[in-house]
Amino acid sequence: MSGEVSSLPFGDAPTHASAIELYARKSAGFDERLAQTVELLKQAVAEHGAGLIQSTSLGAEDMVITDLIARHALPIDIATLDTGALHDETLALVPAIEARYGLKVEVFTPVQQAVIQFVKTNGERAMYESLDLRKACCAVRKLEPLSRMLAGRSAWITGLRREQSSNRAEVPFAEDDGKGRIKLNVLAAWSWADVWHYIAANDVPFNALHDQFMPSIGCAPCTRAIAVGEDFRAGRWWWEDEAAKECGLHATKDKTGVPA
């Protein structure tokens, strides 16, 4: 599986277009997948209680999950990472969630001195210099604050889907995250069309950058729009040659069971 490719209906794409018009489609089995996701969330609450948290990237998938949490009045904490390098459009979703749903979003940021030292040592453009430096930047800005977000938790909810990339093609609904917690990928079986059908049907807030052909959005220096025919995650770390491009938040294992 090579990952979902963009489905833009024209070759010379404009700067802006409606992501809902481009992607939202109700496909066969959607109602069943939706019901399954709601049941998975309810089971997670029953099993983990206060040990459960949604770690939201504020991407389209995670906005769907947040809407489901609010819609079904599920007692699930919500938190996100502000890496210090996100787009303004991404950060704008935090107050949008709080205003729309009345839910508090806890924001975790990197240790400021660690960021300053990294930039001082490696420069503002370190992520473009080498894979090791890019991953080191991710470690400072994402992995360390994530460790604080998940401290004391027994399970966390993500928006990972099998269709997102070949590296995620076998994402299970639940897995051990390697640190004694359960990672719950409640949208694992959903398609991109499913995500946008739900957003359209329920008027879910979403990142304005999705209307600029950015289906997968990370830090601003590491995200670009995708072109016709490119993989779903082609706009992330596009200068790298690695087939499986991840930041480390969602470490995967190869066929031998060794973390990739």
Automatic annotation (TrEMBL):
Keywords carried by this UniProt record: Cytoplasm, Iron, Iron-sulfur, Metal-binding, Oxidoreductase
Catalytic class of the enzyme: oxidoreductase
Subcellular location: Cytoplasm
Binding of [4Fe-4S] cluster, residues: C137, C138, C219, C222
Phosphoadenosine phosphosulphate reductase domain residues: 52-225
GO terms for MF: phosphoadenylyl-sulfate reductase (thioredoxin) activity
Protein name: Adenosine 5'-phosphosulfate reductase
Organism this protein belongs to: Roseateles agri
Gene coding for it: cysH
